Every structure is written in structure tokens, then in C-alpha cells.
Amino acid sequence: MSHPIAESDVLVVGAGIVGLAHASAALARGLSVTIIDRDSRAVGASVRNFGHCCVTAQSGELLDLALVARGKWLEHSAAAGFFSVQSGALAIARSATELAVLGELSASREPGQVELLTAAQASSRVRDGADGAIVGGALLRDDVRVDPREAVSSIAAWLAARPEVTMLWQTSFFGAEDGVARTSRGEIRAARTIVCVGHDLDCLYPHLAAEREVERCALQMMRVEAPSGMVLRPAVLTGTSMLRYPAFAETAAADALRAEVTSTRPDLLEIGANVMFTQRPNGTLIVGDSHRYAATLDPFQAEATSEILLAEVERILGVGKLRVRERWQGIYASSPRQAFLTEEVAPGVTVAIVTSGVGMTIGFGLAERTLAGLT
To answer: What are the extents of the domains in the chain?
Structure first.
């Protein structure tokens, strides 16, 4: 009988933010953990996003999970020593219709959670000289920002340094049963296996991916030089964001907004735009994004899509051409059926993935829910 390469109470497959969150939640419950990932570091959805924990714009169960995750982000930032800021988010309105969505959301929430702003207040929070079409806005109090490239690697390093954790990179998962997982490095013994592979669910459990309609969503994103001297604390959201995030989209006013955008900016709808941006600690801006869906995505990015997104951000900032430093294709698991998926696929083996664009927002909350159901 072969000797296992690792033994622990819990095996976590996938070292993106959702996997790391599950590993941390298991560790907090006094369990030993083995973490494996097929790559030598996180290079997937967890490092290709805005670093925006979009708490306030969630609703229902997602809001509950996001609020739990918010606290966990701040705890892990302190423990692992990475950048985080309780910045809130700024939703700007450039039409009366957009302002109506913000007003309706504000009225439905506790005082202070969604603070309405005048045109001058909203513009000044973006930058001096911002788009003159801004008619108002709202501060979304509970949002948090991190630098995704730093945060994920810092949490992984912090976990790897713990004596109860075994971290194995460049290790592929082939399946698990009877407390034994098969990997490219050999067997791992664990009483419980949690599979957090995101959009690669179909590589391991194609029948589950098909049943739950899980496919891949590709995003076009960029990092650009910020206008000179610009310091931006909150993430900035726009009317297109109001069509995508549930707390906005569920308002009665959102129907009129969709009709307005369909009439005035069909190009934004055609690329699935969520025009928004955040500022990294080094001062550069992460801007984006577009959305397209398929089981298998080609790697090619349409420059026309990037030009539409850049032009919108330039208009909001009130500047000329922004200098692009990097372009990349973001990616995440998506499903029209559910925003996240937890399911026991075999005795002792649980799949836990986020099937919408809120992995950073709810990942830690989902981990607490998963572990509470297992321990």
C-alpha cells in the first residue's frame, strides 16, 4: 500500500480566494488542512478582478454572505498584512433614471447604508473636472477594497506558514473517494474534501456543470495610468452596474433604466458592459469590464470592446486618452440558475464554487456556510 503524500482533516482543491477562504474557515475550527492547486500560484479569477468586495449592492442571501465576508476580509488583512480599505463604493448617476434607482435603493435600506449625494458631491469624489453629466450619486457604505494580486498571494503565504496547513502547488486533483484523494503527486488522505475549482468545474464533474448550467464568463479588463494626482478611495460604479448588481436591478426603477440604456447606449448592452474602476495602491486604475459567455472561450479580445470601455471611463473622469499599461481577460464561473453552488458529489466530497461575478464579495461568507454544514 502506497504512503500518502499528505494527511489532514480537510483537503481543499483550488487555491483561489474561495478555496483559501474554505481552508481558513476549516483552520479556524481546529481542523488540519491540505491545500492543492494545479498551478504554482493563483492565476485565475481571483487575481483578475477589481479587488472590489461589492457588499452593499447585493440582496437577500447574497447580502448576508457578503456582510460575513466583509468582516473576514478585514480580519485576514490584519493577520496576513495586505492592503485593504473600508472605502465604500461610489455609484454615480448621469441621468434622472439612474438617480431614481439609487433613490429607491436608499429608501429600502437602513439609514446611512446608501447615502444619496448631490451632483457636486458625487463629482468631487471622483475627481475635479469629472463628467459634467453627473447629476448625483450614492455612497455604498459597506463595500471594501483590496488589491487582488496582493491579497490572494498574501493569504496563501499566511496559510502555508501555519503548522496545521500543508500547501502543495503544481498538484492536480483527479478525484476522491473513501477518504482518499488521487492527485498528480500521489494520494492524499482527508476525511473531507472541498473542491473549489470555479469555472473548471466541468473538467472534474461535467455532469454537475451541465445540470447546473455552469459555463465560463470572460471579461475584458485593463490597468491604466490615473490622471496626475488622482487619489480615489471608493470603487466607482455606473448605470451599467445598476443593471448587473441585484440590489439595483431588483428596484422598480431598474426597468426604466434598462429601457433607457437600450435606447441610448445599445453598444454597452451588446458587450455586456459593467463600466467601473478602482485604484490600486500603486495609483494605477483597474478599469472594465465586458461580459461574454461560453463553455469554452477563445482567448482573443476585441479592441472595439476595449475602446468602448476606455471611452466611457475617460468621459467619467473628464480626461483625454488614458494610457493603458496592461490588458487581460478576466474569467469566472457563471450560471443563470444560481449565484453559488455547494453540493456533495460523493461521500465526504463537496463542491463549493461561486457561479457569478461575486467570488471576492461572498467567498469568505460561503466558506463559513460550507464549514458550518460539515462540522
So the answer is: 6-48+149-211+337-374, 89-141+215-334
Can you spell out the DSSP letters for 296-352? Answer: S------HHHHHHHHHHHHHHHT-SPPPEEEEEEEEEEE-SS-SEEEEEEETTEEEE
Fold of 6-48+149-211+337-374: FAD/NAD(P)-binding domain (3.50.50)
Long-range residue pairs from 293-301, CB within 8 A, at least 24 positions apart, any chain: 293/215, 293/216, 293/217, 293/218, 293/334, 294/215, 294/216, 294/218, 295/202, 295/215, 295/216, 296/216, 297/216, 297/218, 297/329, 297/331, 299/329, 301/220, 301/327, 301/329
Fold classification of 89-141+215-334 is: D-Amino Acid Oxidase; Chain A, domain 2 (3.30.9)
DSSP state of 164: T
Average pLDDT over residues 269-294: 96
What local confidence, expressed as pLDDT, does residue 90 receive? 98
**C-alpha cell, 324:** 493603458
pLDDT per residue as tens digits for the range 316-355: 999 999 999 999 999 999 999 999 999 999 999 999 999 9
Backbone angles phi, psi at 50, to 5 degrees: -80, -10
Please tell me whether the overall predicted TM-score, pTM, comes out greater than 0.90 for this model. yes
For residue range 41-97, what is the model confidence (pLDDT) as tens digits?
989 889 999 999 999 999 999 999 999 999 999 999 999 999 999 989 999 999 999
Going by the DSSP 8-state scheme, the letter that residue 214 receives in this structure is: -
Rg (CA), the chain: 21
pLDDT-derived band at 3, boundaries 50, 70, 90: confident
Q: Write the single-letter amino acid at 226.
A: A
